[in-house]
Amino acid sequence: MKKEKCADVYDIDVMVADESHEEYVDTILDTIEAAAKVRGTGIARRSHEYIAQKMREGKVIIALAGDEFAGFSYIESWGNKQYVATSGLIVADKFRNHGLARRIKHAAFQLARLRWPKAKLFSLTSGSVVMKMNTELGYFPVTFADLTDDESFWRGCNGCINHDVLARTQRRYCICTAMLFDPEDERCLLLEKLCGTLAKKETRKRKAGLKEDMKNGKSADVKNGVEVAKSVAGTSVRNPVRKSTELEKTPA
Fold it and tell me: What is the DSSP string of 119-164?
């Protein structure tokens, strides 16, 4: 079957979700489960209420093409907010291969850094694409012992098909690779700064492309396109902190 053509990249808006986006929760869960089955990878199952609560807490990044779901990720703190996990990165099939996963990943990273600037950020993944994105942001491979010892986090792995490996090794290793961003490690901070610089250059380039499209009458929705260009590659995230307060693993 021929894959449905993706909407123009400029029409995909990456934002911090809130309670108004709860209507997308079931679609998000179905998309994550379907992707895990296709790739044969482990994934921690989450309930509708779990994801909805993360939205209400301002811990979810969602990508929408108009009113259509395009992608998702979320963040959560562990170990008395000393650690933060970025989890559940997924892009709907028709929107893949357009750089959207990178935008969502960068947005989730920026949101975590804004909310918990002193926390160590970590990621568990079996996907090479996510590993590459983590490396760009300043993550380094570490042992599982370097991650949070918060039992609530590790219980999230119980629903994964590879949980038996984690149990047999007494949580020393599993199928996933552990990666960590330490805000006290100069290497991490240098890579974070470099990534931010490159992202800003990419934003300027895309905004210039938008202006050119406007001149040539190619942009059907100029206002929306300009707004999206501002958040491309995760350089800026709409509503990063709420006023009231390939596939990545989702144990968090």
Answer: SEEEEEE--HHHHHHHHHHT-EEE-GGGS---HHHHHGGGGSTTHH
For 81, half-sphere exposure in the C-beta direction (CA atoms, 13 angstrom radius) is 7
pTM over 0.85: no
Residue 236 confidence (pLDDT): 41
Q: Token pair for residue 116? A: 């918990």
Beta bridge partners of 77: 84
Look at residues 71, 123, 75, 55 and name the one whose alpha carbon lies nearest to residue 231: 71
Under a CB-based contact definition with an 8 Å cutoff, are residues 185 and 124 in contact? no
Overall average pLDDT of the 213-229 stretch: 47
Distance CA 142, CA 52 (A): 31
Percent of the chain with pLDDT over 90: 48
pLDDT at site 71: 97
